[in-house]
Amino acid sequence: EIDFAFLKAFICCGISFSIIETPFFINALKLLNEKYNPPSRTTLSTTLLYIEVARITLKMNKEIKNLQNLTLAKNIIHSKYPFIMTLPCIAHQLHLISYDVCHLPYTSNLISKCNKIVFYFNKSTLVGSLLNNIIKDVLIIGGGLKLACKTRWTTYYD
């Protein structure tokens, strides 16, 4: 199991398999567990890699099969009951719509100007403090001004 953990770590971190055979790395491993014998770089790059690829492929095939079954079930329901509409995830659809709307020239320009205003209030300690006091006095919920960013499509709503 630890051999596969090393394999994944080396691949995901872009570490050369040859590191596993360096005296410094072997010494570090022996300090952690003197009975552990690490695999060779050849074993890592062939046998263990092939086993892991096979494991991942089986997992992917299982996921794809489930997806195909879901699509097949949806098609059967639609052919049997044409009056039933299948709708995708509404939150995802709203995200796509808001993304498209926010990239229209007018909206994009407006968001850019709003971001400049928010940046000004966040950068200026005095003005930002005054704004926060007003927000608390008027009981505005939401915690103040937020910059719009790609990963938070709800910031356009906030």
Automatic annotation (TrEMBL):
<keyword id="KW-0863">Zinc-finger</keyword>
<dbReference type="GO" id="GO:0008270">
    <property type="term" value="F:zinc ion binding"/>
</dbReference>
<keyword id="KW-0539">Nucleus</keyword>
<dbReference type="GO" id="GO:0005634">
    <property type="term" value="C:nucleus"/>
</dbReference>
<keyword id="KW-0862">Zinc</keyword>
<keyword id="KW-0479">Metal-binding</keyword>
<dbReference type="InterPro" id="IPR052035">
    <property type="entry name" value="ZnF_BED_domain_contain"/>
</dbReference>
<protein>
    <submittedName>
        <fullName>11933_t:CDS:1</fullName>
    </submittedName>
</protein>
<dbReference type="InterPro" id="IPR012337">
    <property type="entry name" value="RNaseH-like_sf"/>
</dbReference>
